[in-house]
Amino acid sequence: MMWRETLNRLDDYCWEIPTSYKEGMRVSGRVFASESMLDHILQEQVFQQVANVAFLPGIVGHSLAMPDVHWGYGFPIGGVAATRVSDGVVSPGGVGFDINCGVRLLTTSLTAEEVSPKIESLTAELYTNVPSGLGSKGRLRVSEKELDEVMVKGSLWAVEKGYGEPADIDATEESGCIRGANPEKVSNKAKQRGIPQLGTLGSGNHFLEVERVSEIYDRDAARSMGIEEVDQVVVMVHCGSRGLGHQVCTDYVATLGNAVRKYAINLPDRQLACAPIQSPEGQAYLEAMACAANYAWTNRQCIAHWVRESLVKVFGKSRRELGLAQVYDVAHNIAKIEEHTVDGEKLTVCVHRKGATRAFPPGHPDVPQACREIGQPVLIPGDMGRGSYIAVGTETAMKMTFGSTCHGAGRAQSRSAAKRSQRGADVARSLAARGITVRAGSMGGLAEEAPEAYKDVDEVVDVTQRAGISRKIVRTIPIGVIKG
Fold first, then answer.
1. Which secondary structure element, helix H or strand E, spans residue 248, and what is its range?
2. 340 belongs to the catalytic site
3. Helices (H), ranges, 335-405
4. Which of 126, 193, 210, 240 is the most exposed place for a label (fewest CB within 10 A)?
5. What is the per-residue pLDDT for 307?
6. For residue 238, what are the β-bridge partners?
């Protein structure tokens, strides 16, 4: 297939896959990318996955791909699809295995000049206080009954136990809790995986980063987030729902695979397993997914608490003196029931965001009051060598992408390819030469997450800005990294 002949160029940063490409596509596909990004996207056959998603019953608008898109299970990572709640489907593959993987950002009153002399001590303290690595177990000990409470209450559970403060909840998407969570829809196996892992970072691409602000593009917007100056230090947390979320997805891929046959749904890829939203199977998945999402928000809430404790200990200052306010916490693997206008008609839809971040515009009622004038904060981690971004949502995003934008840089290499091309020890030395202190659970894991394994986050974010689906406010550079 000569994809470049199939694609319609809509503008410099948006490419269309027409419904004529494949019989059965219900809507067209749209991919946000620069010309230079296309070759990599074409090599991975991601366009095929975008076209496959367009087969889902009830899909509206377009099957969408953000500029950090890459190959995923069924849906591409970086994919967005909205289906009508009335007659559409929900698909676990459209959320991903790490349900509510997301990002949280804390500000500090510290500067890079103050932190640099203590960065070794700080990363050591963070590494000790926040358990990380494959299968890691947390400091919390919860019973099955308490786990059920976590899955229903989300961030509030942690705050009530003293892990954080009420203001954190105001600065969290969905206030850290999706309604409708039903622990009875979560398997015992998933619960047993989740009990010992609450309050852990995990492995893979999950991280804790101490970062310094390198550029401010909109001072007023940055100030409203608590970011005043270049060289101010912030802390970014990236993790999700650990083994519990993975098991929920595994369980429901099987359940909804059977539902595909039961409801005679025609799909080009069995990894798109799905069920009507209104069916018992669809409702059960959404209730279980909400449990995993709420677990993930609780997880990040506890980790943020231990980050604060670590900074207080290392710098010998009070929580108040150090600032440590939460800018925002955003999910980037989730399905949400939302209201959107499609072709002039207001619809209730299930928006699947898999490796995509909600990016609601200024004035939207779901944006926290503190940021409502500037739009929802969008947290975009890059890689541990180059940098990350804080952006905000836009009206254009609401019109074009169901209020969505990218979630990160996106992988340029598979994990196995990254491990074949470099050694973890070399990655650590290269980062040290750039003034970045890193602690990792394993050298193999470090090699998998080498900066070269990722696309250039600057180019990815530039595309979102030029396409108008988010607006960059601040750029940061890592100075200390904890990798799972």
1. helix 242-262
2. no
3. 395-400
4. 193
5. 97
6. 103, 207
